[in-house]
Design a protein that fits this description.
Elements lengths: L14 E5 H18 L2 E2 L9 H7 L5 E5 L2 H9 L3 E8 L5 H10 L3 E5 L2 H9 L9 E8 L7 E2 L3 H12 L3 E9 L9 H24 L6 E5 L1 H5 L12 E2 L9 H6 L9 E11 L4 E4 L3 H4 L13 E2 L5 E6 L4 E5 L14 E5 L3 H5 L5 E5 L2 E6 L6
Parallel strand pairs: 1-17, 2-10, 3-4, 4-5, 5-6, 6-7, 6-8, 8-9, 9-10
Antiparallel strand pairs: 1-11, 11-12, 11-16, 12-15, 13-16, 14-15, 17-18
């Protein structure tokens, strides 16, 4: 059943709704930011996983994107996208599927973070007509999750090993600067990023000093790319690869990466029960529609209710949410049973992944229904 042309209040709940004008604005701002800094924008598709948002993020070029699953790579390939980076530490069993993309796409890049997988790449027999592997080294600028430390001898050894392979080309270095999520306020984000990106640029210089070309020097994370440091600290960076900015969320707003008004993706939920004696009401949004990502640590619980600062999502079960008043005084007359609320998610990537369709609206009218690719 299609809801195109219908009003938001006619949608089933819970539903993931997307303000198309905010998405367009977010995409335009990031593109303008990259253009002004002289870096290429290679947007990450993992937040939305849809064709329509992918077109907006690439300015309809269908080129130069990042994916985090091979299901995403297949989806975008089938929809005419090219120059795809699979930015996930490569594992042995994925080599055959990656080889298929290498043969089908004009440009397909893989990422590695250990010598064992580099050795496996060298031993993998590609068809004679196939291009060489295009290999990025994942490096760590201080986040501590994945990647080889930028200042390590290990990083140089891996680059030298990649460059020595007859069936591969070293494409550059790639980092996700997730430590920016621990910075609160634009200035702290900028200061932290300037230090981290300096490490990345130094790493590229050390590689070039070995006589090896380092074409791509890519950085990501929506906070750091939304609030980049002074242009002098960006010189030497070739690509930005943020993803969350397409929707933004409460986390980004609290960090200072965006304003609350920039949040484009929300959950529409309905009030289904009142419990005056205990001072709470129930909504039809449980953790299957929102996730438990925030761990309930926000002042308003697991989320923020748009335009309702006194409401707190205190707890959730699989399909139900318990809402109380922050000040302990819930005025039930303001929230009739059957009326709707809009939830600003703590983490848009996680919340969007819980929904099989996004209802895209302009004002109160549903314009389109976007369907994300699922799985791995």
């Amino acid at each position: 059943m299609s809801f195109k042309g219908r009003k938001l209040e006619e949608l089933p709940s819970p539903s993931f709704i997307v303000d198309v004008n905010k998405v367009k604005r977010n995409c335009e701002r990031m593109k303008q930011r990259c253009d002004s800094l002289g870096v290429k924008l290679r947007p990450h598709m993992k937040t939305h996983k849809t064709l329509e948002a992918g077109l907006l993020m690439t300015s309809n070029t269908r080129r130069q994107v990042v994916v985090s699953t091979l299901a995403e790579a297949q989806f975008y390939f089938e929809n005419g996208f090219d120059d795809i980076t699979y930015a996930y530490p490569l594992s042995f069993e994925k080599l055959p599927r990656c080889a298929e993309f290498l043969s089908k796409l004009e440009l397909f890049h893989i990422a590695v973070d250990n010598m064992e997988i580099i050795d496996a790449l060298g031993k993998y027999v590609l068809p004679e007509s196939c291009k060489k592997w295009s290999v990025l080294l994942m490096v760590d600028c201080g986040y501590g999750r994945d990647g080889v430390p930028t200042n390590s001898d290990e990083a140089l050894k891996m680059v030298e090993k990649i460059s020595s392979l007859t069936n591969a080309e070293f494409a550059g270095i790639y980092t996700h600067y997730g430590a920016s999520y621990h910075c609160h306020g634009p200035e702290k984000i900028k200061n932290s990023s300037s230090v981290a990106w300096g490490k990345l640029i130094d790493c590229a210089s050390r590689i070039r000093a070995k006589g090896i070309e380092c074409k791509n020097v890519g950085v990501g994370s929506t906070p750091s790319c939304s609030q980049p440091p002074d242009p002098k600290f960006v010189e030497g960076i070739t690509e930005f690869h943020p993803g969350n900015y397409v929707f933004y969320d409460v986390t980004q707003a609290n960090l200072g990466a965006c304003a609350e008004d920039d949040i484009a993706g929300k959950v529409l939920t309905r009030i289904i029960s009142h419990y005056p004696d205990s001072g709470h009401m129930l909504i039809d949004c449980g953790w299957l529609a929102l996730t438990l990502d925030s761990l309930g640590k926000l002042p308003t619980g697991f989320c923020v209710f748009e335009g309702e600062p006194n409401l707190k999502l205190e707890k959730m079960t699989q399909e139900l949410g318990t809402v109380v008043a922050v000040d302990g005084k819930l005025d039930f007359s303001k929230y009739p049973i059957g009326s709707t609320l809009k939830i600003l998610p703590h983490h848009a990537c996680a919340t969007a992944a819980m929904h099989p369709v996004y209802y895209v609206h302009d004002g109160d009218t549903v314009l389109e229904e976007w369907k994300p690719v699922r799985g791995w």
